[in-house]
Amino acid sequence: MTQRLNIIGGGMAGCEAAWQAAQLGVPVTIYEMRPKVETFAHQTGDLGEMVCSNSFRSDDDEQNAVGLVHWEMRAAGSLILATADKHRIPAGGALAVDREPYAKSITAAIHAHPLINVTYDEITHLPDEGQWIVATGPLTSGALAEAIQAETGSEALAFFDAIAPIIYADSIDMSRAWMQSRYDKGETEEERTAYLNCPMSKAQYEAFIDALLKAEKTEFKPGETAGYFDGCLPIEVMAERGRETLRFGPMKPVGLCNAHDPENKPYAVVQLRRDNALGTLFNIVGFQTKMKYGAQTRVLRMIPGLEEAEFARLGGIHRNSFINSPTLLTPQMQLKSKPNIRFAGQITGVEGYVESAAMGMVAGRMAAAELSGHTLPPPGPDTGCGALITHITGGAVAKTFQPMNVNFGLFPPIDTVKGGRKRRKERYKAYTDRAKETFSAWLER
């Protein structure tokens, strides 16, 4: 193998694409602009850095679509999932990691691979020659974004994404908070007590909503417009949609019993999840926010147990960009106008760490196959990875295309399994069984 695969971006999609191609014998160069060119969201120059949550979400590969993608990635020898398993921390039924050593392990593995080189330079154009994968994520640099726009002849689509605050554990009042995973989910005691819970009475909840709605928010730049991705809405935007929205979202009290007052059911509950293996940091689950820093500390300290909270990182908001993949990409994830360039990760319009890395995994394997002289078709649409590729390369309606998490609504129905809520467990198990069989066969191609 003399031809080289070039990858722009050292995030999860780029690292996974590089790993898959290199494991198949293809030499790879990753071009990563950090730390020379910084972004709003990144804190380090590490490869594979997690900028928002530290969770890969559900690890249930029988009843959850994202858990199924975990299974598919593990079956394909994923670096991202193997490293996540290595640095796993308790999170109930979710796969959450200690984010700093996680990124350092990714960086070390990439640098140690004999077929992967990393060049810390910014690429500002779309090359005409060679095989390339653009995996720059939602924070693509301005120069490259302009080059993409010039090539595609369309304005870049965009949405706003937000980051949740992180709190020092020793500043949380445990006489008011308690440890419990929702519905005591988990196989071990550590998993069943993976979340820290702060209860609210109705009066406390109403006062919190009032303060949240009145708080000063970050103002966008003149002419900067975009929508929000529904899976990562700022809490104040949710509150604006209705006073009870948060109580039926991230602050829902179901499946929890206040250890300090078991006879009284909380009206609402704020959950925090461990953010590192030491348990010294906790992030507030679902509390992405665009409140200004002063307002954040004031409003969040209204939460029972967080009155004296000290913040390791406050929340923030940034603009994410993605291309209109249904009009621009082939099923091989190639740019129609420049077939030597593939796109992968969040820039294609998938949302979430897992989905982004999965698209990098498939793009890396497809590119490796092409450089080896044959064509690898995408995984079947009845797999998690295949359902995502089908969606972004033509299954979605281009005019209304927005970022999408993997979900069973993207899968072809199974005629022999009835619909409806009562049959949901049976249906999801049928979906995942079928997907595993199809994906296993794809890996043999």
From TrEMBL:
Pfam families: GIDA. Keywords: Cytoplasm, FAD, Flavoprotein, Methyltransferase, NAD, NADP, Transferase, tRNA processing. Its cofactor is FAD. Residues 5-373 form the MnmG N-terminal domain. GO terms for cellular component: cytosol. It is an enzyme of class 2 (transferase). It catalyses: uridine(54) in tRNA + (6R)-5,10-methylene-5,6,7,8-tetrahydrofolate + NADPH + H(+) = 5-methyluridine(54) in tRNA + (6S)-5,6,7,8-tetrahydrofolate + NADP(+); uridine(54) in tRNA + (6R)-5,10-methylene-5,6,7,8-tetrahydrofolate + NADH + H(+) = 5-methyluridine(54) in tRNA + (6S)-5,6,7,8-tetrahydrofolate + NAD(+). Transmembrane segments: none annotated. FAD binds at G9, G10, G11, M12, A13, G14. It is found in: Cytoplasm. GO terms for molecular function: flavin adenine dinucleotide binding; tRNA (uracil(54)-C5)-methyltransferase activity, 5,10-methylenetetrahydrofolate-dependent. Its main location: cytoplasm. One of its GO terms (biological process) is tRNA methylation. It comes from the Bacteria. Its EC number is 2.1.1.74. Catalyzes the folate-dependent formation of 5-methyl-uridine at position 54 (M-5-U54) in all tRNAs. NCBIfam families: gid_trmFO, PRK05335.1. Belongs to the MnmG family. TrmFO subfamily. HAMAP family: TrmFO. This is Methylenetetrahydrofolate--tRNA-(uracil-5-)-methyltransferase TrmFO. The gene is gid.
